[in-house]
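Field: COMPLEX_INPUT
Field: COMPONENT_COUNT = two
Field: RESIDUE_TOTAL = 676
Field: MODE = joint
Values follow.
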Amino acid sequence: MVEEKKEYWRWTEGLYLNKDIDWRKAKSITLGVDIGSVSTQAVVLTDGKIYCFASIRTGSDSPDSARKAVESALKQTDLKQENIHYTVGTGYGRVNIPFANKTVTEIACHARGANYMGGPTIRTILDMGGQDCKAIQCDERGKVVQFLMNDKCAAGTGRGMEVIANLMAVPITDIGRLSFEIDKEPPPVSSTCVVFAKTEAIGLMREGWTKNQVLAAYCSAMAHRVVTLLQRVGVNKDFTITGGIAKNIGVTRRILNELKVDMVQLQPDPQIAGGVGASLFAADLLEKQRKAAG
Amino acid sequence: MVLKEKLVMDRFAEVVKNRHDYAREWKQRTGGRVMGYFCTYMPEEILIAAGMMPVRILGSHEPQDVTERHIYSMFCPFCRDCLAQGLKGRFEYLDGIGMAHTCLHIRQAYSSWVLHVPTKQNFSYYISMPAKPQSPRARPFLIKELEAFKKAVEEWIGRPVTNKDLDKGIEVMNTNRRLMRQIYELRKADKPLVTGTECMQMVCASQCMDKEEHNKLLAEFIKNELPKRTGRDAGTRLMIIGSEDDDTEFLAMAESLGATVVADDHCTGSRYFWNEAPKSEDRIAAIADRYIAKVPCPEKDWEERRRWTHISKLVDEYKVQGALMIQQKFCDPHEFDIPPLMKMLKEKKNVPSLFLEFDVTVPVGQFRTRVEAFLETMQLEM
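Field: COMPLEX_OUTPUT
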């Protein structure tokens, strides 16, 4: 019997177009490309407003992922890449974007993007990326004041969550909801290590835990891990979460419960914060360039 | 090694890269002994006085699997990397090995070395450098320790180490310190004539080559090469502070991001050469004074934090705008110092800092992002 190979980790790729905007009337058309280890976003702003974006899975080749994300975003419109005035690359693959005019780190871009989408009251941002987490403090302009990054390990990150989705054979988008369908919150698993996850999950199932309890224990362990990071940098209101895991209520709610704070939910998509920030920096740089040219 | 036609800075880089070939050639050329040592409290003056070439044991930044049986993996990566070099036979030319006590981690590397890595002449020596040089009792204690060390060296080489020899040892070391200070002065300029990477390379070269030759090269550099240099835009002026750090690759990466490392507090930097041995009739006392008064490793900086005074001074004089706090993983003395030191720099000097934990190898991509983001907090206009 051939078992169907399901990709439980597969998250929903995103596409967006604001049809109310006529890009031809825009004075500034800028592109931000955020190549993360797991996902890539391309965000186009026209005169500082989100015009379109695409969020796709990162492939093995950064330039190729960048091109694909831009293609997907632009496919929705007749705007062509040559109409774009300035491009900023960010994320782990930022140095490998052939068409970027400049690069800015994802730390600065996530803060800027969160400030744009969540408003100037945002002071603390947790970016839960594919392979690392960053706790960032920013000022009212979205400028980074200080930040902390987790160390060298994918535990408590998007990639870790993908591994657990596959391991437990639960679609990744269902994990958050299912992790609350339990009678009583179980203690967190002792190790969020992606490598040891399997051993521990099997052990817990053998002890009679339900699938949802195991999911709850993982979400809770991941939440606890990033809470420690956040506490080291300090959590000032308003607080928000960016990155793919921002969409997983199993983790986010547990973070909020532990910290006893609320979070600002970023619209239209918390995963594009880096791309939005990059595109905003692109707009600044374009203006500077135009001023310099007279 | 054909080095003559090259620029001095390239020669330093080459000596560091091929330090073992250099030492073997030196032995062949001079017939002298080479003594390996751990940490920078070893009184090299006495070794030079005895006609030897002291070389510091440094790591190679390669992953290794030979030290697990000898040192716990929660000991610092530097001490394990050092021991690995011995176990792999890379220092097979050493005639002796020694250390003046700094921390337990490096002492473990030294002890394992003595047990498992044979030296040509089977000489090993452990100087009990006081853990609290600030104590008034440290100086007389160290003098006695150094006298005993000198005696052991004399027995080993089979001749007395005279006052004239000691004068030479002190003079060679002090000249080196003076020349290095002269070069560090250049980093104060708005357009520094030397980079942090070059300075680290120079100090590392000094720790693994003949000091007199190093002095000659430094003098040549100052006389012939400096006048031809134009300096570079400093960008953000950084200081590096912390544990042993000879990772020039990391430093070059940091300096490629619109910043220049203009000052340091490392034992592969200013802590190694900052102060000279004073003039005194009692040469051993003068050497002891030098190591008592040296800018301390945090392992020896208690209760008053004298290193912090040194750091503050450097911050002012070199117009430092940001600090990279480099910590070898599990290096407790630095780990103990770093949080209040970061606070002090922020509150008293308005200097923000970025904490980085080093291992034998560092994740360059991640570290680049951190350093770049840290620089952006100072550079990005919004």
